[in-house]
């Protein structure tokens, strides 16, 4: 699962196996074995290096479906804007609850 996700991201970014291995400073043979699911449990250091080069959060490599795959671009921009505005999760939850309450009052 992780290997296929890494392979798909690598190809999306137009990187060869050698290029990704070089940029991440990891052995090409090890990367290949991960992508082919021969090696199934890469270290956190490996994941950090790969995620850094691919410019994705480590969690997106580990989880079955990344949050970014589940959300369209407009939702992603709204979430980013909220985070950059220093809105806390609790404040956001309160806003949602208020909005639900307001809709019920109609």
Automatic annotation (TrEMBL):
Pfam families reported for this sequence: HTH_3, SinI
Domain HTH cro/C1-type: start-end pairs: 6-61
Sin domain span: 62-100
Coiled coil residues, start to end: none
Keywords: DNA-binding
PANTHER family named in the record: HTH-TYPE TRANSCRIPTIONAL REGULATOR, HTH-TYPE TRANSCRIPTIONAL REGULATOR SINR
CDD domains according to UniProt: HTH_XRE
Gene3D superfamilies: lambda repressor-like DNA-binding domains
Keyword DNA-binding: yes
SMART domains: HTH_XRE
Protein name as annotated: XRE family transcriptional regulator of biofilm formation
């Amino acid at each position: 699962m992780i290997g296929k996700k890494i392979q798909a991201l690598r190809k999306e970014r137009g990187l060869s196996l050698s290029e990704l291995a070089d940029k991440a400073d990891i052995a090409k043979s090890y990367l290949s074995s991960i992508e082919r699911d021969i090696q199934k449990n890469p270290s956190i250091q490996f994941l950090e290096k790969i995620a850094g080069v691919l410019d994705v959060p480590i969690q997106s490599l580990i989880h079955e479906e990344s949050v970014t795959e589940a959300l369209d671009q407009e939702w992603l921009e709204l979430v980013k804007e909220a985070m950059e505005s220093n809105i806390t999760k609790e404040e956001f939850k309160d806003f949602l609850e208020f909005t639900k309450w307001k809709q019920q009052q109609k």
